[in-house]
Amino acid sequence: xxxxxxxxxxxxxxxxxxxxxxxxxxxxxxxxxxxxxxxxxxxxxxxxxxxxxxxxxxxxxxxxxxxxxxxxxxxxxxxxxxxxxxxxxxxxxxxxxxxxxxxxxxxxxxxxxxxxxxxxxxxxxxxxxxxxxxxxxxxxxxxxxxxxxxxxxxxxxxxxxxxxxxxxxxxxxxxxxxxxxxxxxxxxxxxxxxxxxxxxxxxxxxxxxxxxxxxxxxxxxxxxxxxxxxxxxxxxxxxxxxxxxxxxxxxxxxxxxxxxxxxxxxxxxxxxxxxxxxxxxxxxxxxxxxxxxxxxxxxxxxxxxxxxxxxxxxxxxxxxxxxxxxxxxxxxxxxxxxxxxxxxxxxxxxxxxxxxxxxxxxxxxxxxxxxxxxxxxxxxxxxxxxxxxxxxxxxxxxxxxxxxxxxxxxxx
Amino acid sequence: xxxxxxxxxxxxxxxxxxxxxxxxxxxxxxxxxxxxxxxxxxxxxxxxxxxxxxxxxxxxxxxxxxxxxxxxxxxxxxxxxxxxxxxxxxxxxxxxxxxxxxxxxxxxxxxxxxxxxxxxxxxxxxxxxxxxxxxxxxxxxxxxxxxxxxxxxxxxxxxxxxxxxxxxxxxxxxxxxxxxxxxxxxxxxxxxxxxxxxxxxxxxxxxxxxxxxxxxxxxxxxxxxxxxxxxxxxxxxxxxxxxxxxxxxxxxxxxxxxxxxxxxxxxxxxxxxxxxxxxxxxxxxxxxxxxxxxxxxxxxxxxxxxxxxxxxxxxxxxxxxxxxxxxxxxxxxxxxxxxxxxxxxxxxxxxxxxxxxxxxxxxxxxxxxxxxxxxxxxxxxxxxxxxxxxxxxxxxxxxxxxxxxxxxxxxx
Lengths: 412, 412
Fold this sequence. Notes:
By secondary structure, the first copy, chain A, is α/β, with parallel strands linked by helices. The first copy, chain A, is built from twelve helices and 18 strands.
């Protein structure tokens, strides 16, 4: 029998009425002939409440106990969802992570899935179970303790089950209609994409489009899981949501598929660094050791043996980065005249798999920004992406200009 | 190393401050040289919230899902308690029922404990763990699903661990100072008992003194577990609380140890029943089948082949009982002229192991009630208990009169 994985996030199971609504969608897929694995998050707000209690009890907490506490929210939703389905006449039962078992590493709080043996689920499907409701976000370490996969881990749980069960598709139900060419709150010209490639989705996810966890997209790409993002508050139709799929399944790739942005970026410049072999390593090793997520890096042309080094990182890591760099200067590892932090910047990016075979995307992007008087501070590029740092006050303007110049409103 | 079981109920772990307070008490026992197993309930209100969600989702619920949902409250407290202890420098970890494992029957919602293999706990104690915080109320069925032991099951969990671990004592921390000669809200002459026998405690528990679950006392008696009831809001002293122990450990038994009452009793009288062999079975079998908890039964002297049959049951089962009896009459199984339900009665009882060797307790009880003008409606006795039904308006008066006549205020 064909199998389907359906995942419902926190807002999709916010209360008993939402759980019932989600159960209706599951029932419909059972009627369509699927055996279904449903992955559920905690009812919205519950995980935050539990995390708050843990932090208040023990600011330097034992991650194993954190996981034991925080995983309980998903167990509640799983049981209630199974009950809701049973009430609709659908043979369903709940599964906690350890019952499946969903095996993980022992990296508590950020565990990685190692294996999902499907014998237990298969046996129950063979006995007539139509729906297995699995508590998302949680797993079992080799020593028998409960682990969690990190925030948003339920997406990853869903994709992992789809891969393990060889499911036809993995549907991620959320509170938006799918993946858009850009954030509809910034321009009403934003258009829902029917399809997007894994590679593009990965760039968009890591650029701050919060529809899917980056990890879950990586996993889907690796195991070729067809991933659909759709709204739990709309009735599903043929072309509902956005299908995240291999590039080959997208007939004609757009040069640019979407415009992403990230608000909380800071630009940091080390002024007049001695330019010598190994200087980049000397700067970025202490930052990495301090846990700073360095994103873009630019080195200016060197003059008289000195250069300026600029990088970006999340705004809330500026203090951390400054401390690490000052310490490196004090210990003589590096030498610079000044460290300038600009917290009033943002990152705007265009993403599209068609860029690979299409020249001039960066130039068109820069022209569009220039036409609006937006000054570009830093540029980086990848094979399918061009990102720029600009002053934060221009963020909406830049997104709108780029959306227009690449005609995303009307693209096929 | 000597071992101790400590159990904290819902009000003792109501919030983070209470959990911290409870953890302090655990720490003190570790400092006293004990390896400790702590049994925790859900934070107060949590289990009711979960039960409410289950009932709203599925009024005719699958008890397996009920258990999966409802058990989650204890898991949260267990993790938070372990964290709180760790924060105080005490090596502690949490255990969910399935991790121990605490094995039970598969009677979901009212499972009975079958076995607690202690290998896992022993191994961790040997590695230096000082406190195992175990989620109460829950267990694991043979098929790998979560069970719960029924309301108040955490007391039973605690006693079962004390028996399995051969603990020196099982301390039940609650919101009262111990077991009293009667309810202190009814008379301020009520006195805390330092010791009470299992048999007396069983009678008091089943008579409505809500300090301990009847099941846990039965279990303690069977396995000779020394059980102490004490307040989690007082500092423990040498003679804190009440020790529930074998009769032999109580030097001089009081004739009467306590006066108990039960407010929600109803008296039902079947008027003019045909008095024939088998009539009692014909009346009480349908009541049992309907799930009515019949307590006292009195049959009047028979006149002309007919008799009156009186029994008591909880007030909220009167309708159920009436329906069952009317159905039995309609089907011709029994025959009676009238069914009179008196919902304005209560049960008052005196309990004492010394009664066994001391005549005249019942007579003294009846005299004391008569002196206050309290009319007795039904009487039953056991080896260590005399119970009467009286009009509810006399309840406090009756309790006070009996407390006085047996001099419980001053008894040793």
